[in-house]
């Protein structure tokens, strides 16, 4: 049980919720496989594949949202519908109109759905009710929104807010690179991506490349800003911080993983040990990241600050990206 990516959100530390109440509310929307005419199904699953939907260890909660999708490509439906349309055109002497083709595609979809293969996946969310963290193991905010949306539809009360910091990650990472020094407790690793905010959207990506010296500073002076930067915290956790305050490529180093007894034969005991260790490490990492970004903005001040301080421009993806090494992008 090790998260790979972190989408970070805030819950009030006085949130009126217990593990037992959360269990009761999640049980209202459990996961069920797709019906014969369903393209997708989603619902809450037990993290340990037992009857418990809220897995609690040491005051930390883990929940899991399950998804099932039917694999019915639109190209398959179109091909079948086109073939039937040709046969019907030969029989009746004229081609089908637009409305008839739409109805035919809908008919083909209904016929093929029960025979389509299904694919299942799940996403995990960690809830720290003491310190007010909700963290989803998702590669993007859009994927994490699937979990958040289902929580909103499931819970009676869900007072969630975005994590906001005084400094934007982009400006903070630029300061660290320009000064050649990371904030206390962190070290700068050898992966970085810089993008221009100008119209040309030029970008450069470093992979396993030293970030010291005048080369990176020259890019900063030319108007490129960091959108990704690899860091290590306390010699225990390595990760990539993004301009959206996402944590990606999260890796707990051997000094952390070696604390777990590798001889545990009980799968549940191993799962619990990994979850407890992971949440304990993240409980130190997240406040340190917030502190490195100038501290957290209180929820009631976010709207007021947004009115007075313009948001930092986020460069869009460039058409082409020069890479400094032959390694694949991270």
UniProtKB/TrEMBL annotation:
What molecular functions are annotated in GO for this chain?
A: double-stranded DNA binding
Q: What InterPro entries does UniProt report for this protein, alphabetically?
A: RdgC (IPR007476)
* Gene coding for it: rdgC
Superkingdom of the source? Bacteria
One annotated GO biological process: DNA recombination
| Keywords per UniProt | Cytoplasm, DNA recombination
Q: What's the protein called, per UniProt?
A: Recombination-associated protein RdgC
Q: Does the keyword Cytoplasm apply?
A: yes
Q: What is the lineage of its organism?
A: Bacteria, Pseudomonadati, Pseudomonadota, Betaproteobacteria, Rhodocyclales
């Amino acid at each position: 049980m090790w998260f790979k990516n972190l989408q970070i959100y805030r819950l009030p530390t006085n949130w009126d919720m217990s593990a037992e109440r959360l269990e009761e509310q999640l049980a209202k929307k459990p996961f069920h496989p797709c019906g014969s005419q369903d393209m997708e199904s989603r619902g809450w699953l037990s993290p340990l594949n037992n009857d418990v939907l809220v897995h609690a260890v040491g005051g930390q909660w883990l929940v899991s949202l399950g998804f099932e999708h039917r694999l019915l490509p639109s190209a398959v439906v179109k091909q079948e519908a086109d073939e039937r349309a040709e046969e019907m055109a030969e029989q009746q002497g004229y081609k089908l109109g637009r409305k008839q083709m739409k109805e035919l595609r809908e008919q083909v979809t209904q016929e093929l759905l029960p025979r389509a293969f299904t694919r299942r996946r799940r996403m995990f969310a960690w809830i720290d009710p003491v310190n007010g963290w909700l963290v989803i193991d998702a590669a993007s905010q859009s994927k994490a929104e699937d979990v958040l949306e289902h929580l909103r539809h499931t819970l009676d009360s869900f007072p969630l807010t975005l994590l906001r910091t005084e400094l934007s990650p982009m400006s903070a990472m630029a300061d660290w690179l320009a000064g050649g020094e990371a904030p206390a407790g962190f070290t700068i690793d050898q992966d970085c991506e810089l993008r221009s905010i100008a119209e040309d959207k030029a970008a450069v990506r470093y992979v396993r490349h030293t970030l010291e010296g005048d080369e990176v500073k020259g890019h900063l002076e030319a108007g490129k800003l960091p959108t990704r930067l690899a860091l290590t915290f306390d010699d225990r956790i390595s990760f990539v911080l993004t301009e959206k305050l996402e944590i990606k490529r999260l890796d707990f180093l051997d000094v952390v993983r070696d604390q777990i007894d590798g001889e545990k034969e009980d799968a549940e005991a191993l799962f619990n040990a990994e979850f407890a260790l992971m949440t304990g490490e993240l409980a130190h990492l997240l406040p340190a990241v917030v502190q490195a970004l100038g501290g957290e903005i209180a929820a009631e001040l976010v709207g007021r600050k947004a009115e007075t301080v313009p948001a930092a421009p986020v460069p869009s993806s460039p058409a082409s990206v020069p890479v400094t090494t032959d390694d694949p992008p991270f």
